[in-house]
Design goal:
- It is a single chain.
- This protein has 395 residues and is α/β, with parallel strands linked by helices.
- The chain contains eleven helices and 18 strands.
- It has helices spanning 10-18, 34-43, 63-71, 101-113, 128-143, 182-199, 212-223, 235-250, 289-310, 317-331, 376-393, and strands at 7-8, 23-26, 31-32, 46-49, 94-97, 118-122, 148-152, 163-166, 204-207, 230-232, 257-258, 261-263, 269-271, 277-278, 281-282, 338-345, 351-362, 365-369.
- The strands form six sheets. It has a six-stranded parallel sheet with strand order 7-6-5-8-9-10.
- The longest helix is centred in the last third of the chain and has 22 residues, at 289-310.
- The N and C termini lie far apart (70 Å).
């Protein structure tokens, strides 16, 4: 018997609102109209992808329980929506230092998502930040997005920022390792740290400049900010690349892959294979050991491959989305742990080390490090990565 597709319209949303319901279950294959989505957003009704688990009935033949247990193995299984935060807030002022590829892409994402009341763009190249700010204002005439945006060359424009994202610095060229940028970008980061410390002393800093782990450590030392307020973007980007590699290899949508990468942003990154899942199942249910190893290798080489192809620039769109992920976790729009580079203080048995680990973030930066269970191999790899970063930082 062919299952009929359920159509969810605005009428169902209105009916649920009148009954005081907070969500509607959306079964796989259901069609949700645009009018229904608009009504749900207007009335505060959450659309939850089902089937949702329900309390077991006191009596029964067990058929329903068996169905729920086997459903996740079905080819039509659909993943749950990402966890959403409950009390989302907007940044009072967000400043992006560096209006190049990553900065420009991130500025558009932030402006379109309405993450901040005031967006400030800063770049030392005369006219670059100003022109980008003007261009975005013109685009708002089409998008109808409201918000203040300005640009300039003076780092003092960061004054009063709630958060500062630093993408400034030299990019890699073909054949160049991230660590080779340490000397040149270290000087830039130290000068920016002094300016941020004086103009935005209460801000949270998100580092994007490479080499990421080392530059996060330089910014932390130079500003003398508490560790909670100096965060590096790395694991978010590496995790995204790993999920794509797994999805492509397993021939499934990336939405059906859950995976996280911690450790260094480079050769010492640590994909958490023990926690990775495809359609809720361990990786080995879908991929061979060699295929998994190839996915890890592809993730490590992904950034360098883009540099080889572009020759004069590195990746920009994916890093911008990775920073956006951190900002949305900070603002409360997304709940849960996210991989980020932070100074460790005993977590995972490590101290005096700046490296990527799962973190829970808030408007004031780090809330806590989420010490997820690691396999013995993953823990050893993390400690090796920490030792490598520590040696490069102390050079």
């Amino acid at each position: 018997m062919t299952e009929r597709r359920r159509v969810v319209g605005a009428e169902q949303i209105d009916r649920a609102s009148r009954r005081g319901r907070k969500f509607i279950e959306i079964l796989p294959g259901s069609i949700v109209t645009d009018q229904a989505r608009d009504a749900a957003a207007r009335l505060g009704i959450e659309l939850r992808l089902g089937p949702l688990d329900r309390p077991a009935a006191p009596q029964g033949d067990g058929g329903a329980a068996l169905y729920r247990g086997l459903y996740r193995r079905h080819p039509k299984w659909m993943p749950a929506f990402p966890a959403k935060g409950r009390n989302a807030t907007r940044f009072r002022k967000l400043t992006l230092i560096g209006a190049g590829g990553v900065g420009a892409a991130l500025a558009q994402l932030v402006f379109n998502r309405q993450l901040t009341e005031q967006l400030t763009l800063i770049d030392l190249v005369p006219g670059l930040a100003e022109s980008l700010a003007m261009d975005m204002k013109h685009a708002s005439g089409t998008s109808r997005q409201s918000g203040r945006v300005d640009g300039g060359t003076d780092v003092g424009m960061a004054e009063g920022s709630s958060a500062v994202v630093v993408t400034a610095g030299r990019s890699r060229s073909p054949g160049m390792d991230r660590s080779e940028l340490a000397t040149a970008n270290g000087r830039i980061v130290r000068s920016l740290a002094e300016a941020i410390q004086s103009t935005a002393p209460e801000s949270v800093i998100i580092m994007v400049s490479n080499p990421l782990d080392e530059m996060t450590a330089v910014m932390l030392t130079a500003t003398r900010f508490p560790r909670e307020r100096v965060i590096g973007m790395a694991g978010t980007l590496d995790s995204a690349r790993f999920r794509v590699a797994l999805a492509d290899t397993a021939a499934v949508p990336v939405s059906e892959v859950d995976a996280m990468v911690i450790g260094s942003h480079g050769a010492e990154m640590v994909p958490l294979l023990s926690l990775a899942r495809i359609r809720g199942q361990p990786l080995h249910r879908f991929l061979s050991e060699q295929a998994i190893a190839d996915c890890v290798a592809a993730t490590i080489a992904a950034g360098g491959r883009i540099v080889e192809l572009r020759r004069t620039a590195s990746a920009s769109i994916a890093p911008a989305h990775a920073v956006l992920d951190l900002l949305e976790h900070m603002s409360g729009r997304i709940a849960g742990a996210v991989p980020a580079t932070i100074a460790l203080d005993g977590e995972f048995g490590l101290s005096d080390t700046v490296i990527g680990v799962p973190c829970r973030l808030g408007t004031r930066g780090l809330i806590e490090v989420d010490e997820v269970p690691l396999s013995e191999s993953e823990r050893d790899q993390l400690h090796q990565a920490a030792a490598a970063v520590r040696s490069r930082t102390n050079q």
